[in-house]
Sequence to fold (266 residues):
Amino acid sequence: MNLIKIFLAFSLFSVAFSLENFNSHLLPRPLILEYAETVRADSEEFEKEVHLQCTSWRFAAETNNLSPWKTIPPECADYVKDYMTTRAYSIDLERVSKEAAVYARSVELGGDGKDVWVFDVDETLLSNLPYYASHGFGLEVFDGVEFDKWAEKAMAPAIQASLRLYEEVSSLGFKAILLTGRHEQQREATVENLMKAGFRNWDKLILRASGDVEKQATIYKSEKRSEMVEEGYRILGNSGDQWSDLLGSPVSVRSFKLPNPMYYIP
Fold:
């Protein structure tokens, strides 16, 4: 069918826009670059193609195949909203949690209190969906000042699948270390929020100190994991919604990526 011309490969974007000095870091990047005039934008064929393209985009985002991005594609605003607010997101969260729990039960711990499971906080233990619902589910460029105001309210609900995993790994004997990109000034609000959401008895809650503020998340979190290893901890599990929670060095024996198509943190 020649109803719609779609560039399917994201690698072609830089070529398509090279004459305009296209910068892959400046978003939103259009998914649909050109389509026939005979196709109505509100037609069923068009809507199906947009849905397929947005599904493909989300897959690429979750598998870390995209260039750094700052907002979701505007065509995918409704798609991401529907995904985040329906059973699809919940089912994906449950899948990750169940697979992580199966792994956790298979591990033979050392018994010396040095076996660690590292958890990110935002979109891993706590859900900021109430905040992002008011900001287009990732359609708006991230505003750190506004997000900090939300975080200070300590109102983010627990991600229930993660709470169950957290409780299970703790009961198995893992030490829970919470490693977040939030700033040290937010410690009180973060502790309050975690406690209200049902998270208890973590071993450490690590937040960005003043010297960590300008570091990319991958570097900052790698450094903190290195410090854990130097202290004799064995990092056997790691849960996070960003690849920057999981990549770098040292890495966990097993890492589990939670879904999050709303934003990207390098």
About this structure: Residues 1-25 have pLDDT under 50 and may be disordered. The first helix runs from residue 13 to 16. The beta strands are 4-5, 34-35, 115-119, 175-183, 204-208, 234-240, 254-257. DSSP finds ten helices and seven strands in the chain.
